[in-house]
Amino acid sequence: MNNMALLEMDDGDLARARELFEQTMVIKRQLGERRSLAIGLANLSDVLIRTSQWDAARRALAEAAELAADLGNPQLIGTLRCNQGDLAAKKHAGRRPPGTIRPPQRPTRRLVTSTTRWRR
């Protein structure tokens, strides 16, 4: 089911991909497969990020990160950090991060109609 969800995601059917990922989460939780659950949460977070569901993506990534830290799997931790970066970038796309200042505007030149001189 996880692989089918990945195929749906690649085909652009994000609603179906999310549905399949969520079904796999139920099974993985019942089986107690923590590594598989962390990977599934990472995949689910990808769909949630693509559909602008920021809070749900953040929660999925937080749970997956906790599992990955307990497992000590550097590859999984790296994948989750990439997803966390993707979440931050897309969530704040088009907005300035807090604390940044607007760069100074360059003065514009305009033609003064009463003369032929340029002014600042």
What's the arrangement of secondary structure elements?
Layout: H1 2-11, H2 14-31, H3 34-50, H4 54-71, H5 74-91, E1 110-111, E2 118-119
Antiparallel strand pairs: 1-2
Characterise this structure.
With 120 residues, this protein is mainly alpha-helical. The chain has one domain (2-93): Serine Threonine Protein Phosphatase 5, Tetratricopeptide repeat (Alpha Horseshoe), CATH 1.25.40.10. The protein is built from 5 helices and 2 strands. The protein has a two-stranded antiparallel sheet. A hairpin with a 6-residue loop joins strand 1 (110-111) and strand 2. The longest helix has 18 residues, at 14-31.
Characteristic key phrases:
120 residues, mainly alpha, Serine Threonine Protein Phosphatase 5, Tetratricopeptide repeat, two-stranded antiparallel sheet, 5 helices
Strand order of the largest sheet: 1-2
Strand content: under 5%
Helix content: 55-70%
Q: Tally the beta strands.
A: 2
Radius of gyration: 23 Å
Shape descriptor reads: globular
What would you say about this model in short?
This protein has helices spanning 2-11, 14-31, 34-50, 54-71, 74-91; strands at residues 110-111, 118-119.
